[in-house]
Design a protein that fits this description.
alpha/beta, 8-stranded parallel barrel, globular
């Protein structure tokens, strides 16, 4: 399986330098990350919104080693929110944040991440939108869930992400599937050991369906993070069986992947949110997109050969 190899490469400084230096890389990266600055991303937000889609915005970057970098990440999100307010697009875009960007892995990281993310959540609420805390590797999750619980005391619309490949996730889903909660379910995109996570695709898919059933039958708001046509069909059927209306759940897919499906679901009346990342520190995000789906890797390799 190539996925684990690519995920290992995502942590390699040597591979980062090699891939970043390839002349074709930026052309390919642009498929998944359509800009580096707020100014560059605004036209994308307008275009997707005009086409009936909603967005969740991610300022990419994870390798935080100093507190001032975490502060800069906070300020980048605040600048994005200010711009959305100016453009009156706040209700069309929420934020997705990785707590590693806010200093979670530093000394005193739990408190530091909470202190940095709270102003972002407050600012998002002020323009009529919200924040979802992305899940990272399994060692960070207890801290993430604790911060999520703390933020929901004042901002109950704050969402979080759970990952189907982890053994713990079905129990997490039962705890989170309460009134007012917003939970995005994804398969998972980090290299995790067999002691904590399913390793085979069919096991992960079965876990995804079990967990999605828990969320659909619960009292919260499920967000289906998948591009898999079979899982999308199953999600629609589970929603129907649970008696959910079209505005009582939503689909989420990555920018640049299955764009026609984004429009199809929106045209059918579903809430369809496009996960749109931007920024200069794109390497880790880009490599996980390659690892998640063989077609993405084939696209990259083909582009390297034909344009290199």
């Amino acid at each position: 399986m190539l996925g684990p190899v690519i995920l290992a490469a995502s942590r390699s400084d040597r591979m980062r330098r090699l891939i970043s230096a390839a002349p074709v890389t930026k052309q390919v990266v642009d498929r998944f990350i359509p800009g580096e600055t707020v100014d560059e991303i605004v036209p994308i937000i307008r275009e997707l919104s005009d086409r009936g889609l909603e967005l969740t915005m991610d300022v990419v970057g994870e390798d935080i080693t100093r507190p001032e970098q975490a502060t800069a990440a906070r300020d980048a999100y605040l600048a994005l929110i200010d711009r959305l307010k100016e453009l009156e697009l706040g209700t069309r875009a929420e934020m997705s944040v990785k707590l590693s960007m806010f200093g979670q892995a530093l000394e005193g990281g739990h408190e530091l991440a909470l202190a940095n993310v709270r102003p972002v959540v407050e600012a998002a609420a002020a323009i009529g939108t919200t924040v979802t805390l992305d899940a990272e590797d399994h060692t960070t999750l207890d801290s993430m869930f604790a911060i999520h619980e703390e933020l929901r005391k004042d901002f109950p619309q704050t969402g979080c992400v759970i990952q189907a490949y982890l053994f713990r996730t079905e129990a997490d889903a039962r705890r989170l599937a309460e009134s007012g909660s917003r939970v995005r379910l994804v398969k998972g995109a980090y290299k995790e050991p067999a002691e904590v996570a399913y390793q085979q695709k069919h096991e992960i898919d079965k876990a995804y369906v079990r967990i999605l059933k828990v969320l659909m039958e619960g009292a919260g708001y499920p967000m289906i993070g998948s591009h898999d046509p079979r899982l999308i069909s199953i999600a629609q059927e589970l929603a129907r069986r649970a008696g959910r209306k079209l505005d009582e759940y939503e689909f989420q897919m990555l920018y640049g992947i299955r764009s026609d499906e984004h429009l199809r679901l929106a045209a059918e009346g579903h809430r369809m949110r496009v996960y749109t990342a931007y920024g200069t520190d794109w390497y880790g995000y880009f490599m996980r997109r390659l690892a998640e789906k063989p077609a993405n890797l084939r696209f990259f390799a083909r582009s390297m050969l034909t344009r290199g």
